[in-house]
Amino acid sequence: MRFPSHRVWSCLHATRRLHGARTVFLFLVACLWAVAAPSGHAADRPVRILALGDSLTAGYGLAHADSFVPRLQAALDARGDAITILDGGVSGDTSADALARLDWALGDKPDAVIVELGGNDGLRGLDPARMEQNLTAILDRLQRDHLPVLLSGMYAPPNMGAGYGQSFRAVFERLSHRPGILWDPFFLDGVAAHPDLEQADHIHPDPAGVAVIVARMVPLVERLARRE
Question: Which domain of life does the protein's organism represent (predicted)?
């Protein structure tokens, strides 16, 4: 349980005006109950989670209703979760692109963030070290804003070679160990290399593939919301 520091100091300051041990004790008990009570945010609206990503988040090649964010929202709604998913997916975005638009993406004041990036860095053969710098800058900013993060990992395409693939994957492995990170090892887990779950490009999931991703992600998103 976290007590807002400004409420605690207000209570302690107020006790200075009181006299009598019993009066002070009863006042402190009432004050601590007020401090520990949920803020107005929890009662006023659902937890808002930004899905910051690329075409896998944006739903490239799919009808909007079949894409990741609407399907995830529908699954959460069906479970009665007070969670709203904000769509921050932009097709074609690299980690650098997402970093450049981060201020704009955070404009809707989310309470937590899903980070799904790196696929386009890998497809373009961009330097994994630069990708790590970009992702680190994103995570640093989210941490400064006290936003819990679910980081979803990615693998480089096999045609980029084993060495590149190892360096690429190592970036996500290192970032997954940052304090406070909730880790999803691979966004396309259970979908990649399954032609019946992929579109014709063998990169993006089809509607059935999105369903697989959503089913795996729902428990993680619920955990992320509880960290808010």
Answer: Bacteria
Measure the CA–CA gap between 209 and 76, rounded to whole angstroms: 18
Residue with tokens 């490239």: 60
State which residues form the domain around 106: 59-226
In a domain? residue 14 = no
Domain CATH for 203: 3.40.50.1110
Looking at the chain, which runs of residues are DSSP E strands?
47-53, 83-89, 112-116, 149-152, 181-184
Asked if residue 83 lies in contact with residue 112, where contact means CB atoms within 8 angstroms, the answer is no
> Across 75-180, where does the E strand assignment appear?
83-89, 112-116, 149-152
Residues in CB range of 218: below 8 A, 6 or more apart: 72, 75, 76, 79
Query: Which residues belong to the active site?
Result: 55, 201, 204
